Amino acid sequence: MSIENPHFEKPKDDKEKLVQFYDQLYSKEGAAFAEGEPEAIVEKIPVLMAGGRALDIGAGEGRNSLVLARNGFEVTAIDPSPKGISKIQATAETEKLPIQTILGDTKDVPLNETYEAIVSALMLHHLPEDGALVFIEQIKQQTRTEGLNAIVAVTKEGDFYRNNPDTVNFYPDVDALRQLYNGWEILEYKEEERQYNATREDGSPMRNVTVSLLARKPAG
Description:
- With about 220 residues, the protein is α/β, with parallel strands linked by helices.
- It is built from eight helices and eight strands; from the N terminus they run βαααβαβαββαβααββ.
- It has an eight-stranded mixed β-sheet with strand order 1-7-8-6-5-2-3-4.
- Helix 1 (about 15-25) crosses helix 5.
- The longest helix is centred in the middle third of the chain and has 14 residues, at about 80-95.
- The relative contact order is 0.17.
């Protein structure tokens, strides 16, 4: 699987550079990620539950938010890129979709809200490891009983981490996400090597092992 996701690690205490990078990426013609297609595990959410409230954190241009909104979910989409948020708003307005947008990051997740489904796709490696672990616990708490979490993360197994092994950012071991969701029903867990547009020194595409997890919160 090939996706349009060049590696860009958030500079410490420099959110502005991250926003500038993604604004530039989203200003180009066409979709920046996966040709605009949602993650496969996100497409399964409407099959497993008939609508509800959904939260998409690191929504980008909305490829995951849109598929949920088109299938009966009321979606809150959060992203720090004004360009990304503008694209989501434009599509939502054109299609009259129930999507609320928030220009922000994980610190801007509404803490007093709960959701039937929460999505975090390919954004955890922008967080420091301790912050990512706190964030995962937070969204687990904000998921309603028998609700779903869809997580996609870049692991240590690949070029991104090998090129910067001293990073403080969150690159989990391959099985770490499953362990973090111990006690939840793991509906799907997939490890796959993905090719990225970022290149190695020899010009060949970078490759990383990415994990996708879809889990249901237990009752009681």
